[in-house]
Amino acid sequence: KFCSRVSVEHAGPRLGSLGAIFILLKSALGAGLLNFPWAFAKAGGIHNAVTVELASLVFLVSGLVILGYSSSVSGRCTYQAVVREMCGLAIGHLCEICFIFNLFMISVAFLVIMDDQLGKRELTSRSIPSRNLSACSPLLHDTLESTSRVIDQMSLLLASLVLEFALFVLQMTFECAPVCRMSSWASTFTVIPTICFGFQCHEASITIYSNMENQRLSHWILVCVISMIVCLIIYSLTGVYGYLTFGKEVKADVLMSYSSDDVVMIIARLLFAVSLVTIYPIVLLLGRSVIQDHLLRRWRPCAGVSALESRSRYVVTVLWITVTLLFAIFVPDISKIISVIGGISAFFIFIFPGLCLMFAMHGFCVPRVILTLWGAFTLVCGAFIFGQSTTITVMQILGKI
């Protein structure tokens, strides 16, 4: 899972409809595939989980549409810039903090997943961090580059690897279908953080919209609806087949539920590990760029900014890799990380779009009042999801101490 913060060069070729749909899909599809069968089991079965997905689809599409509209109103082409322009500096700073923390936790999740896939084959414990270090050693050179060329070179590889992984999972999980008992509706809330994490492409949406050839709002709505429906189908099929195969025994990382001697799943694990190795530098570049932008705003009056920028790039890169490795070593399983990321994702899917809509719809005519109320309702839903997922995660962690 990642988001694009690349500056848009309007002089270059513009995105068509298919290109925009493809990039939105590429931004959304990723590590969330691993967790959906487990989320279906925790939600109490297929019916509950799919119902929550369909209800969430309204908010997911709504958030994308609001962000596209806010980008056209503000004239900005990155998520943070749009929020800062529409909602003010204070909320803009909060957006930057959430953005960095979200990318940091996504980096930790990637390392945990890579360790799971490699550790499944080697049958060793995650308490030995050398495997994570060896997996991340080739990342250091790439992430020290300050240009966005790495993103362009790796994006196609990432998309193809994730697609291959999805096909492998669907093929393997269709073999058996044990019947599992249903649980209460209260348990359906456990699937919401996974949905937020899996469908999270809202940070990239503003850059995609700003680079589209046809920026009519009706066209953007069509692009968003098609992208989210395709994501819904892929995630739902993965969740349904994984849940039917393993039932309540499915693990948070569905690949860990398969035998370590299965040749097809070994290939799937390797493909997924390679895709995560290629995406980790991209996530680091995005997080580092936000941190550097904040530092440069403070250093701008000072002399020697270019030298400070070069040094800060190295320091932030080394610290990011080191701290994410330390976090990944002590994380018990991927479900805890996804719960935290899902809670933070609520800011980008619900809270910030709701605030943008409320600030944009200042007026007293009936349509604007209705839209303002919808923005407020979206904001409240996002706050509930963040509080619910964060509270559950903290209670689970404290319960194991």
From TrEMBL:
The keyword Zinc-finger does not apply. The chain crosses the membrane at residues 15-38, 50-70, 90-113, 156-174, 220-244, 264-291, 312-331, 337-361, 373-398. One of its GO terms (cellular component) is membrane. It is a multi-pass membrane protein. Pfam families: Aa_trans (PF01490). Residues 19-119, 159-361 form the Amino acid transporter transmembrane domain. Keywords: Membrane, Transmembrane, Transmembrane helix. GO terms for molecular function: L-amino acid transmembrane transporter activity. It is found in: Membrane. InterPro entries: AA_transpt_TM. This is Solute carrier family 38 member 8a. It comes from Takifugu rubripes.
